[in-house]
Amino acid sequence: MGKWFPRIYDIAMRPIERSGFKKIRTKLGKEANGRVLEVGSGTGINFPYYRNAIRVDAIEPNSIMREKSLRRLERARVPIQLSNARAESLPFADDTFDTVLATLVFCTIPNPVKAIQEIERVSKPGAKVLFFEHVRVEQPFLRKTQDLLTPLWKKLCDGCHLNRDTLALLKQSNLEVTEVKYYYNQIFVVVKSFNNKSNKL
Ligand SMILES: C[S@@+](CC[C@H](N)C(=O)[O-])C[C@H]1O[C@@H](n2cnc3c(N)ncnc32)[C@H](O)[C@@H]1O
């Protein structure tokens, strides 16, 4: 992984965080309750927003990101345990979590299908699974632009696929999608779902 991307991440994100993402993160943070898993916690940008979690287990494979998140971790209102792990191989037992949160991370995970399967495994039956992601758009011009930019974008932004169809992957998974809310010309989306595995047994 590149070193400069994690170092400039917070500064680069500041304008969009202030203009809209902060509101989205605030709502998602409040919704996360019980034992919470955060996937790809980056610089800990969601850490200040947790209010109702008993405990948060955050996983993040990038050591610079983990280090940058420590200040927010120490100031958080809930206990947060941070681990070096990848979404495709979560170091947790089956049926551990009441809520799973992933924000702006499924664009970068090398094997998103495996990551969703792991989230299904470690979350309890009925657990909330919440996502805030950028996705492949329907609008033809924007879609083409996403496709054209993706090869360079991946190099600049640590493997981020601008054009990944994460929403389709979630709909095809065993998670039950209950709400989809679009933002910024349908480029960003909040997806609420739950783990309905007990219903399928
Ligand atoms: C664009 S950043 C988003 C960080 C943070 N979640 C946010 O909302 O700003 C993407 C994050 O995904 C992490 N990541 C990349 N591959 C991953 C994987 N296989 N499993 C978990 N996290 C991963 C990166 O290290 C990075 O911290």
From TrEMBL:
- Which keywords does this chain's UniProt record carry? Methyltransferase, Transferase
Q: Give the EC number(s) under which this enzyme is classified.
A: 2.1.1.-
GO molecular function terms attached to this record: methyltransferase activity
Entry keyword annotation includes Methyltransferase: yes
Enzyme class, first EC level, given as a word: transferase
Q: Name one GO biological process term.
A: methylation
Top-level division of the source organism's lineage: Bacteria
Q: Which CDD domains does its entry note?
A: AdoMet_MTases
**UniProt keyword Methyltransferase present:** yes
Under the heading Pfam families, the entry gives:
Methyltransf_11 (PF08241)
Methyltransferase type domain: from which residue to which, for each copy?
37-131
InterPro entries, per the entry: Methyltransf_11, SAM-dependent_MTases_sf, Thiol_S-MT
Q: What is this protein called?
A: Class I SAM-dependent methyltransferase
Provenance organism: Terrilactibacillus laevilacticus
